[in-house]
Amino acid sequence: MKRTVRQLSRYVAVGAGLFAVDLAVFMGLVTIDVPIPVAQLISRATGAVLGFFLHRQWTFAGETEHASGAGTQGAGYAALTLANLGLSPVVVTVLANLVPSLVLAKVLTEVAMVLTTFALTRWLFRRRPE
Fold this sequence. Notes:
Blueprint (H helix, E strand, L loop, with lengths): L1 H30 L4 H24 L10 H27 L5 H23 L6
Helix pairs in contact: 1-2, 1-4, 2-3, 3-4
């Protein structure tokens, strides 16, 4: 239980930093008239690459030495990222039409993504029997 709490707090801390990067890239692109779905894809992809390394080396530290190799984890993380990249532009676009602020739409989208991906990421970086 303690390990799960530690991992979740690290996941949230890394996620907060990644969100700041993601939001800055997203808003910068939207400001220069990049369409919202394209800006979302680019900003999420930027965060995903950084996220893989931070989660592997810090969030789930201590798990990865007994886990499958970085290549296998990278492929799994890429698949999860691609699923999120496909889903998040749809979610942020729908929410942008439902809520009064684009920033709020972006925040709500990212909260939904965090809630759905922690368990999957934790499973990906889990300790395997030796």
